[in-house]
Amino acid sequence: MKLKRGLVQVYTGNGKGKTTAAWGQAIRASGQGLRVGIIQFFKGKGSGEAKMARKLKLDVYSFCPVHPFFGGKREKLKKECGEGLAFAKRLVMSKKYDMIILDEINIAMRDRLIEVNDVLSLIKEKPKEVELILTGRGAPKKIMEAADLVTEMREIKHPYQKEIKGRKGIEY
Predict the structure, then answer these.
(1) Are 122 and 89 in contact (CB under 8 A)?
(2) 69 occurs within a structural domain
(3) What SS3 class is residue 35?
(4) Which residues of 1-17 are buried (b: 16+ CB within 10 A; e: fewer)?
(5) Is residue 153 in a domain?
(6) pLDDT tens, residue by residue, 40-87
(7) Could you tell me the residue range of the domain that residue 125 belongs to?
(8) Which residues pair with 55 in a beta bridge?
(9) Whole-prediction pTM value?
(10) CA–CA separation, 23 and 53 (whole Å)
(11) How far is residue 134's CA from residue 85's CA, in Å, rounded to a whole number?
(12) Most CB atoms within 10 A, among 58, 78, 161, 168?
């Protein structure tokens, strides 16, 4: 199965569920015979979703495994994020995948590790039959304007407020 028209989806906001929503889309698409490629920024290959992806035969690529907030060196991360975006562009243009997820790319733009205009260029140049999903807090306004679907996850209450740390299998 091929998509006649691929859209651009953005999942952003301070609430939980952005990556989860995108991975749900990946599972649904894969179940319908679409080829899915996922590029993760700021997550290592040990995340629960990456482990499951291997079982589901989804292709996952990781760039910039450590965000500056957690001790990553900014210049190194800027280089790695740039490599990740260049890889994403090649993947999108190759038409190997019907759906490509750029997980946490909004954070890379928000933190100026990737230029917003470079991602806008990818959105404008993508083949019409490729679905593109961008996740992460702080999606730039220009990205949201260029997207076909934007969902903002809004935090109302979160376990962090009670000093409950992220739990393996639930938050990662």
Answers:
(1) yes
(2) yes
(3) coil
(4) eebeebebbbbbbebee
(5) no
(6) 998 766 677 888 888 888 899 999 877 666 666 778 889 999 999 999
(7) 8-139
(8) none
(9) 0.90
(10) 9
(11) 12
(12) 58
Nearest by Cα to 91 from 37, 40, 33: 37
- Lookup result for tokens 């994020």: 81
For residue 130, is it within any domain? yes
Give the other-Cβ count within 10 Å of 115's Cβ.
14
- Helical H runs in 32-157? 48-56, 74-94, 105-110, 116-125, 141-146
- φ, ψ of residue 113 to 5 degrees: the values are -95, -20
Residue 36 maps to which CATH number?
3.40.50.300
Q: What is the DSSP letter of 164?
A: P
Per the CB < 8 A criterion, the answer to whether 25 and 57 are in contact is no
Cβ(10)–Cβ(144) below 8 Å? yes
Looking at residue 96, its amino acid is K
Domain count, the chain: 1
- Strand pairing partners for 39? 61, 102
Measured CA distances, 20 to 68, 109, 130 (Å):
23, 20, 20
For residue range 7-17, list pLDDT tens digits in order: 999 999 999 99
